[in-house]
């Protein structure tokens, strides 16, 4: 586990665990979004001073990008695992049920960190929105390629638009994250998944 020593402000330098501090910052950004998370929120949750934050992570924007990297690596692993499922419908089911598991989990902020930060983003934080959009586009391209493969294998009908199907899946997934953030129960979200899968164009 990586640790660092912050430059001294008064007295001795303070040592802290960078990984633990970053994990705490992730939860603040996830719960409040980029604009909603103040420096005081972040430093109090991370247990460090502002100079220590700047020394270890750069500014607030740089910290958010690092937190988003961690969020994708730990919380969104299901999106990568979904691509390895044997059928297009299994891909979709893994995506949607994984979304429910992550975005409506007990003890975690509800909703999507990236979506919330990109929707409620001030003009001064356009780079945050651009980064979220770039990451989402990369994930969507991988899904399109997976559905094109399914068409070649006969798992999806040849007339199906892989990009349109990907947009449909993402719309449902974003709906799950928004509804989770608005207080929908797990049972309600699971029912949304079941209904969506009933409309899927393959078995």
From TrEMBL:
Q: Which SUPFAM superfamilies match?
A: Homeodomain-like, Tetracyclin repressor-like, C-terminal domain
Full protein name: TetR/AcrR family transcriptional regulator
Keyword Transmembrane helix applies: no
User: What Pfam families does UniProt report for this protein, alphabetically?
Assistant: TetR_N
Top-level taxon:
Bacteria
List, alphabetically, the PROSITE patterns matched: HTH_TETR_1 (PS01081), HTH_TETR_2 (PS50977)
Q: What is the lineage of its organism?
A: Bacteria, Pseudomonadati, Pseudomonadota, Alphaproteobacteria, Sphingomonadales
Q: Which Gene3D superfamilies match?
A: Homeodomain-like, Tetracycline Repressor, domain 2
DNA-binding region boundaries: 38-57
The HTH tetR-type domain, residue ranges: 15-75
**Record keywords, A-Z:** DNA-binding, Transcription, Transcription regulation
Q: Which InterPro entries match?
A: DNA-bd_HTH_TetR-type_CS, Homeodomain-like_sf, HTH_TetR, Tet_transcr_reg_TetR-rel_C_sf
Tell me the organism: Sphingopyxis soli
- Coiled-coil stretches are none
């Amino acid at each position: 586990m990586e640790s660092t020593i912050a430059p001294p402000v008064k007295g001795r330098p303070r040592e802290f665990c960078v990984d633990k501090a970053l994990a705490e910052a992730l939860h603040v950004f996830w719960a409040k979004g980029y604009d909603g998370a103040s420096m005081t929120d972040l430093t109090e949750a991370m247990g460090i001073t502002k100079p220590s934050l700047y020394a270890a992570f750069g500014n607030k924007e740089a910290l958010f990008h690092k937190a988003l990297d961690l969020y994708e690596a730990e919380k969104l692993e299901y999106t990568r695992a979904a691509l390895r499922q044997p059928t297009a419908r299994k891909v979709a089911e893994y995506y949607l049920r994984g979304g429910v598991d992550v975005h409506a989990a007990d003890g975690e902020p509800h909703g999507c960190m990236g979506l919330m930060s990109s929707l409620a983003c001030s003009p001064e934080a356009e780079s945050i929105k651009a980064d979220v959009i770039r990451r989402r586009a990369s994930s969507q391209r991988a899904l399109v390629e997976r559905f094109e493969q399914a068409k070649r294998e006969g798992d999806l009908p040849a007339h199906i638009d892989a990009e349109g199907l990907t947009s449909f899946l993402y719309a449902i997934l974003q709906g799950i994250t928004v509804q989770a953030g608005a207080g929908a129960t797990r049972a309600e979200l699971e029912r949304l998944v079941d209904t969506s899968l009933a409309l899927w164009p393959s078995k």
